[in-house]
C-alpha cells in the first residue's frame, strides 16, 4: 500500500525524522491558506500523486511548455496560480505511463536553501532477507540512472535482524554521504528514525530523494525534502491507522474492487484474462501464455479457499477489461475443491453472459466432479488436460475469434 508524500512526512516526523513544515490542500483556497501559515517568503507547491518524477512531469491540459508538478512560488499569488493549474489536471510522469494521474491534492511546503542533495532508502533485500540501507551522494536524480551510469556511487549497508540497527550503521551512512561533524550526527539520527519507522509500520520501502543539507537559523540542517513510503499490504490488519491513509482514487478501480473480495489482481496489457489459485501457478500460467504467442491481460490469484461468490467476482473483474478476448482458468484443487470452482465458473459465465472464449484446466481434489459440472453446464467451455494444453487452446480460440 502506497501513501502520499505529505502523509509519509507526517508519519516520519513521529519517528523523529526532520522534515520541512508543510500543509496538504484539496483546493486553491486551502493551498493559499496553507502558505499563509508557513514562514515564507519561498514556498514549494507539490502535486500529490502515487508516482515519482513529478517535478519533470507534464500536465496533459497545459501543453509541453508548462511547468511540472513541483513548483517554486515566491509569493502567495504564485501559490494560487500554481494551484489553479495543477488541481484537477492530469500529470504525466515517467512512472504514470501516458495516461497520467489526475492531481486531486497539493502539498504546500516551506522553501529550503539547499546546499547538497543525497539519496537514502530502506528496503527489504530479498537476497539476504534483511533490511538494507541504500545511500548515494547523487540525490535528486533517478536512482536507476545512477545505478546504471555510476554504480560505485551507491552504497548498501545490510542490517542483521539479530542485532538490529547499531550506531556503526549510522556512521557508515554518514561516511558514504561524505558528512562529518554535526551533519554526521544528524545523519545517524535520520537513519535511526527511518529504521524505527520501517519496523514500526511494517514498511516495504522508505525512499528519501532528496535528503538535503539546508541552511538553517542555527547552522546546516539535514532535512527530508521528499519521501516515498510503501507498506506491506498483508500487515495492514496490524495497522488500522495506516490503512485509513489509503487513497482509493490513486488505484486502479478493478484492483480496488478485487481487494474487497480478497483477490490479488493486477491489470496487465495483454488480451487473455487469467484466473488462477496460487501466485506461483499464476506466474507460470502467464509465462506459458506468452510462450504460445499471446499476452496475459492480468494477474489474478483467487487464493486457496475461494468460494463460489469469490470466483464469480473474479470473472466480473476480468471481463470489465475491454482488452480481454479470452479467459484461461487454471486451478489446482487442494483446499479449494474443483467442484466448487466449477460451480463458480458456471454461475459467473451465466451471470455475466460470457461472450469470449473460456478454457478451463482443473486438477486436484474432486477434479472429476468439477469436469462433469462444466461438461453438463450447456456452456461453450473448453476443457484442457494440462497447463500446456490449456495455453495452446486459449490462444487458438482467441485467434479464431479475432
What does this 3D model show about the protein?
Substrate binds at residues 277, 334-336. One of its GO terms (cellular component) is cytosol. Heterotetramer of two alpha and two beta subunits. Belongs to the succinate/malate CoA ligase beta subunit family. The chain contains 13 helices and 19 strands. By secondary structure, the protein is of the alpha+beta class. A hairpin with a 4-residue loop joins strand 8 (114-125) and strand 9. The longest helix has 20 residues, at 181-200. The model has no long low-confidence stretch (mean pLDDT 91).
CATH fold node name of the largest domain: Rossmann fold
CATH class descriptor name of the largest domain: Alpha Beta
Total DSSP helices: 13
CATH superfamily of the largest domain: Succinyl-CoA synthetase domains
What integer value in Å does the Rg equal? 25 Å
- Ranges where pLDDT stays below 50 over 5 or more residues in a row are none
Computed structural class: alpha+beta
Record field, number of beta strands: 19
User: Helix coverage percent of residues?
Assistant: 25-40%
- Distance N to C terminus: 38 Å
Which architecture name of the largest domain does CATH use?
Answer: 3-Layer(aba) Sandwich
| Overall mean confidence score, pLDDT | 91
**In terms of quaternary structure, what is this?**
single chain
Largest sheet: 6 strands, antiparallel
Any idea how many domains? 3
Amino acid at each position: 500500500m502506497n501513501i502520499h508524500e505529505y502523509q509519509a512526512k507526517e508519519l516520519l516526523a513521529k519517528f523523529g525524522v526532520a522534515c520541512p513544515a508543510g500543509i496538504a490542500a484539496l483546493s486553491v483556497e486551502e493551498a493559499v491558506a496553507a502558505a499563509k501559515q508557513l514562514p515564507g517568503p519561498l514556498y514549494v507547491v507539490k502535486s500529490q500523486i502515487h508516482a515519482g518524477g513529478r517535478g519533470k512531469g507534464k500536465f496533459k491540459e497545459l501543453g509541453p511548455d508548462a511547468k511540472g508538478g513541483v513548483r517554486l512560488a515566491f509569493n502567495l499569488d504564485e501559490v494560487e496560480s500554481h494551484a489553479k493549474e495543477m488541481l484537477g489536471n492530469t500529470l504525466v510522469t515517467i512512472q504514470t505511463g501516458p495516461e497520467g494521474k489526475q492531481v486531486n491534492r497539493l502539498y504546500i511546503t516551506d522553501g529550503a536553501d539547499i546546499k547538497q542533495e543525497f539519496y537514502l532508502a530502506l528496503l527489504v533485500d530479498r537476497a539476504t532477507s534483511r533490511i538494507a540501507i541504500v545511500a548515494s551522494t547523487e540525490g535528486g536524480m533517478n536512482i536507476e540512472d545512477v545505478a546504471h551510469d555510476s554504480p560505485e556511487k551507491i552504497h548498501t549497508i545490510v542490517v542483521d535482524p539479530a542485532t538490529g540497527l547499531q550506531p556503526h550503521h549510522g556512521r557508515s551512512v554518514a561516511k558514504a554521504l561524505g558528512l562529518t561533524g554535526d551533519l554526521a550526527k544528524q545523519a545517524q539520527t535520520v537513519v535511526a528514525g527511518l529504521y524505527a519507522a520501517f519496523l514500526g509500520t511494517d514498511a516495504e520501502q522508505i525512499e528519501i530523494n532528496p535528503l538535503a543539507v539546508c541552511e538553517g537559523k542555527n547552522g546546516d540542517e539535514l532535512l527530508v525534502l521528499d519521501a516515498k513510503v510503501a507498506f506491506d499490504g498483508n500487515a495492514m490488519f496490524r495497522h488500522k491507522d495506516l490503512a485509513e491513509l489509503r487513497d482509493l482514487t490513486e488505484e486502479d478501480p478493478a484492483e480496488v474492487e478485487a481487494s474487497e473480495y480478497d483477490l490479488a489482481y493486477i491489470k496487465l496489457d495483454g488480451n487473455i484474462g487469467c484466473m488462477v489459485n496460487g501466485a506461483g501457478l499464476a506466474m507460470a500460467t502467464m509465462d506459458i501464455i506468452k510462450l504460445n504467442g499471446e499476452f496475459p491481460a492480468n494477474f489474478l490469484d483467487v487464493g486457496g479457499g475461494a468460494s463460489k461468490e469469490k470466483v464469480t467476482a473474479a470473472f466480473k473483474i476480468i471481463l470489465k477489461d475491454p482488452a480481454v478476448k479470452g479467459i484461461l482458468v487454471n486451478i489446482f484443487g487442494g483446499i479449494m475443491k474443483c467442484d466448487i470452482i466449477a460451480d463458480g465458473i458456471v454461475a459467473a459465465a451465466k451471470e455475466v453472459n460470457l461472450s469470449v472464449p473460456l478454457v478451463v484446466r482443473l486438477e486436484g481434489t474432486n477434479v472429476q466432479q468439477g469436469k462433469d459440472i462444466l461438461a453438463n453446464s450447456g456452456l461453450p467451455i473448453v476443457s484442457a488436460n494440462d497447463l500446456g494444453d490449456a495455453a495452446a487452446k486459449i490462444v487458438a480460440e482467441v485467434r479464431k475469434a479475432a
